[in-house]
Amino acid sequence: MTHNLILLESVDKFSINDNNSKIIVFDYLTHKKLDKKNISHSFYDQYLSDDEIKELFDFLHSRHNWNHECSNLEFEGVNILQIISPLEFHETFFPIIKKIYAIKKILEIENPKKVQVSKNLSSIVEQFINKKIIHELSFPLRPTDKGFNSEHIEIRFNLLNKPVSLYISKKLFSKLKSIQENILCRIFNLWYKPDTPKKINLILEFNPALFSSMLNELKNSRNTPVFFNQRRSAVWNWKSIQNLRKNNCKIINPNDFFKLSDTEFTHIKSKFKSNLNNFWKFDEKLSLLFSKENIEFWPEIKKKLIPLYYSRLEDFLKSIIISKNLLDQISINTILSISESGENENIVFQCNKNKNKITTCLLQHSFFRYDPELYNFQWRYEPQSMYGLKSDYYLLWGNADYDFYSQFGIPKEKLIITGSPKHDNYLPINKTGNQKTVLLAIMPITNVSGLCRLQTYIDYELMLEKILQTLKSIENIKIIIKLHPGENFSNTLLNQYFKRKHPDILILQTTPSKKLLEESDILIHTGPEFYEISTIMLEAMLLGNTVIDIYLDENIKNLTPIETGLLRISGNDDFEKIKKIVTNETDSSSILDGISKQLTKYITNQNNSSKYVVKFLDNIEN
After folding, report:
1. What's the pTM value of the predicted model, to 2 decimals?
2. How much of the chain exceeds pLDDT 90, in percent?
3. Which of 147, 133, 140 is nearest to 12 (CA)?
């Protein structure tokens, strides 16, 4: 039995006079604060086994259709509750479910006489023990919600060679995006005119700057390429504008498809706000659905979920009206996307499924299926495994991807190998010069699986420090750190770590990977989990760079070493091999010579895949 148990989350200021108390923390930053003060503490997830975390993963996954039956929340055939990405739902609420389950286990194991908790944990603790022994601590809490939960957008850029992030509200972002598009699309004549008789290929949420060769092929298509981007603008930089202009691409102006008076739209908003109120008021079914072993998860889930729907309701309704009118009024040949989980994609797919039945194609956008030994582990966390394939066709980069998806039951007639249009212009470059440049590409901790623990953050920093100390011991090399471009709390921690420990190293996040790889000789890729592989590995191989993959995850035992095409080693291995490759003491020809053989598995129709994609789209008849 524990005399006094202290549970802390998001606490920066904390002091304790009782050395007999047991302290358990629930987040990494609180750990850092306590560690700095030499205050002994444990981690909450030490009370969870891997098997229990996997059970919780399966539990939440089995509830991903919680929002399917609600007819009074359907507007123009679109279920408003289903607009939010199921993957974002998982990533947001899985940590909460883990935390609640862990608190129950902690209380059972420690059996405390007294429990002191930070304010944000008290309602959870009250579910399991007598309120009389719970004491809420008065320490202020650190703000934690950004991005998905707080309705803010992260704006990333580099200042003095260091990544900088600013957060602005999504409403302000939408206004600025609209102003920017109105100015640029008028100047460069990029707006699509709805009365155009020619059929179009509707392209959802693509970055035109990355698909130069595909846009060049689409220029000769019998269908006009038209972009519909509700997140990042299709004219976000000069290269995008250039690609769109010279290839006769157009952009959807949402205002052309939103023809309602303020009075009409206000009436629609009021109706669905009332329907939402009624839905949340009678939530007994949801309470039962999100319960496991007499543990209620729903009270904590709804604290974040309900405000989120209210804050996005107006945008959802506008997007539904725009998408419905767009699909009804324009002659569309195909809909091409690179994701099926975004809100814009969800709305368009629902509108299309209910009435229009336009052929949809999903273009593969990432690389991680490079080792058959990992397939069974990776499939569990693949979006198509978790939520199914919505599109009529999946356009794949190569044979490895085809083997992967067909192995796990995706119908072969839906799988089309086209190659990667994004990588058509990736060609090997001969590097000269005495100084070698090493690009260290670092994946953040995204933790879809939930298996990364608080200790993982510590272990990851230790492994990164080991890599950097190895590289810094080598003379006449330049080190560049490339963080993953996505919005992620782990990226923020990594950036702070490198600024503090290695201020001399250039850190980049938004710089295009192709530019960095062309200036580098060796790529070292590292990530915390086996299923998190960055596309930059494939891109480095295409450009003829030596690729070294260092993995932290030791959950997979007896993983066969790879030394042809790329070198894969564990973070626990001796890094002397890396040092010898960088200094040319070890001949890396076996790695480089194996690239072409490996690439035949990963990518097909290299330098020509854009033609295959456009030909496939043009052969579709709707």
Report:
1. 0.93
2. 74
3. 140
